[in-house]
Design a protein that fits this description.
Elements: H1 3-13, E1 17-20, E2 27-35, E3 41-46, H2 60-65, H3 72-80, E4 103-105, E5 111-113, H4 122-128, E6 130-132, H5 134-145
Antiparallel strand pairs: 1-2, 2-3, 4-5, 4-6
Length: 170
């Protein structure tokens, strides 16, 4: 394998991925470590290891068939597409993972960042949680963690606008 081909493979297959374990049919997080040959990959880590280390790594086929679709960041990004924040109802903006990643709101009302979601839990989280924008996550986290410092101020109620009947004079 040429150095160029190895470099391309590295960039194509790097990152944490979520696949379905062929043995127990549950989601697992894996990382690819190296190419066995020009055709197949080898795992560097799996959330079922060390107990199941030495398995036949049949899950690698899922990565080879859909490298992008198994990547954790791609799965999460796709999930946020066309969604609105459940708190402020603003559309989730383009995600900048290293600056202001969106969060998820759990059924218990707490929000958490993606770094706090185990990759193998991703399918369950996406099925049970709701999208939260970065600003609302920071605000709600502060409110939850520092409740004595938060002062609630009711928003002023805007007076209802009544429309006067229009009179058409011809």
């Amino acid at each position: 394998m040429s150095v160029t081909a190895i470099g391309r493979a590295f960039f194509k297959f790097r990152g944490t991925r979520v696949v379905t374990c062929p043995e127990n049919h549950q989601p697992v997080a894996v990382r690819v470590s190296a190419m066995r040959s020009t055709e197949s990959l080898r795992l560097g880590s799996c959330t079922r290891w060390p107990e199941k280390e030495g398995c036949d790594e049949a899950c690698v086929r899922q990565i080879e068939e859909s490298p992008e679709a198994t990547l954790v960041r791609a799965i999460a990004t796709d999930w946020y597409t066309a969604k609105k924040c459940v708190v402020c109802h603003a559309p989730i903006a383009k995600i900048v993972w290293h600056e202001r990643p969106p969060a998820v709101l759990a059924p218990d009302g707490t929000s958490r960042e993606w770094k706090d979601v185990a990759p193998q839990d991703l399918p369950a989280v996406l099925a049970t949680h709701q999208p939260v924008c970065w600003k609302c996550h920071v605000t709600e986290s502060f409110r939850r963690e520092h409740a004595p410092l938060v002062v609630e101020r009711p928003r002023p109620v805007e007076p209802e606008r009544t429309l006067e009947p229009s009179v058409n004079v011809y």
